Amino acid sequence: MKDIIESLRKRIQDAAIRCNRDPGGIRLIGVTKTKPVERVEEGIAAGLTDIGENYIQEARDKIAGLSGADVTWHFIGHLQSNKAKYAVPLFDWIHTVDSLKLAREINKQAEKQEKVQKILMEVNISGEASKAGVSPDNALSLADEISRLPDLSLRGLMTMPPFFDDPEAVRPYFAQLRKLARTIAAQCLPNIRMEELSMGMTGDFEVAIEEGATMIRIGTAIFGARQ
Ligand SMILES: *Cc1c(COP(=O)(O)O)cnc(C)c1O
């Protein structure tokens, strides 16, 4: 596992240097959905500092089992509003806020927990019907609404592009997310910082880094294929 993570970090560094970026500005999130807590622990022992989970129930057990570990937890799955009350106490970051209803619920739970919840807005750049995320056309108005919710801190955007075998085919979607973040940043909304782009997975993270990713979400390349 240590070798795998080291070689991944080398690839991250190479991609960053290719486009004159500081490799330190790219956070590697190990995605552990469906993998048992022992594997997550192995990943942490091998140097992972950030872990991404997709399902609340599964994450709850793992986070409880790893309560002593110094880990930043990221929720990267689809979140239903009625599950916000579980997500807020568990996760440092929630990447998948895509509606005002969900944002309001997270805000309410964060207030109860006396926490400012860091969030990203998930954008459905491709417009595929099967994908979660706010449409690019509605992203600005959602950001505006979120800026009024005091217990949320919106830090950037996240996307899941369509799947292609060729990572170059994904590049335009990553580029569009970066442009959208810039458009939102230009509005100077209070209480919002467009500094994070959560994009790039096992098959396309190098292209994502070239297009500005600050958080890459890697499962298969670290933990192997999922069932
Ligand atoms: C599963 C998952 C990943 C990791 O995908 P890999 O291709 O296994 O690296 C990243 N992001 C999200 C939202 C996921 O659900």
- Distance from first to last alpha carbon: 19 Å
| Percent in helix | 40-55%
Total count of strands:
8
Whole-angstrom Rg: 17 Å
Proportion of residues in β-strands: 15-25%
Q: Walk across the major sheet and give the strand order.
A: 7-6-5-4-3-2-1-8
Task: Describe the structure using short key phrases.
eight-stranded parallel sheet, 227 residues, alpha/beta, 8 strands, binds pyridoxal-5'-phosphate
Provide a brief overview of the structure.
The chain has helices at 2-18, 37-45, 56-65, 84-90, 100-112, 136-146, 171-185, 205-210, 220-223; strands spanning 27-31, 50-53, 72-75, 93-97, 117-122, 152-158, 192-198, 215-218. With 227 residues, it is α/β, with parallel strands linked by helices.
